[in-house]
Amino acid sequence: MKNRKRILKRVFNLSASLLVLGILGLAAPAMAEPVDAVQIEGHRCLVTGPAIISDDAPVVFILHGLGGNAENLYGLIEKMNLPPCRYVLPDAPLTIGDRAYAWYNFQTQDRDDMVHSRDYLFTLMKYFSTEGEEKGHVRPIILMGFSQGGVMSLEAGLNYPGKVTAIVSMSGYIWYPSKTLAHPLAPLSIPLLVVHGTKDEIVTEEWTQKTVKALKRAGYQPVFKEFPIAHQISLDSLTAVSKFLQAVLAHITEK
Fold this sequence. Notes:
By secondary structure, the chain is of the alpha/beta class. Helices cover 36% and strands 20% of the residues.
């Protein structure tokens, strides 16, 4: 129990460092694009992107980690420099402090919490992928997240009863492969990026390798990238994410 508490404390400390993001060169810029705060099922989502955007432009969900909130990873948007997209940054459903949220109980890896958060993400995915002027349209969906957000990107992206264009998990994992990958709905061809830091003491190499192996056993072909970093996002790791997503979006445009 003491070891778990020590690990949890490290996660909060690392999350606190990540909130600033300046140490990684990712300090959040002034919000040049319009930003709306939308309440769905009692939880806040920040929504941003060009004021005028086509109905077939992708919607990118960016999911924060343990103890974070919707604002923490806003700075990633400018750094990724993707083609015009709608971005949705939600607060996780579980409140664990002042403006601090979680997707599930980290100490217990609570499966019920994960399912609840996954279902909440399903609601967001359906809502934001169908907003727009054209009736019946569905925006391409991209899920990306860090730490717990990476966990939920995999959990929701692989099991969403609709089309998901790509999944990015940064310092995430699959804790229950027999559950998450029992009957996945995402096609085996889905672009899937798993990013891990070799100095990460929170999400270990063992957890990451088990996740990659579980995905491959299920028939998926994840792209696996490692960087000499701790439990964090670096400019190099974010560049890899950006290149991956730019390639995915270029492929969509070609169709």
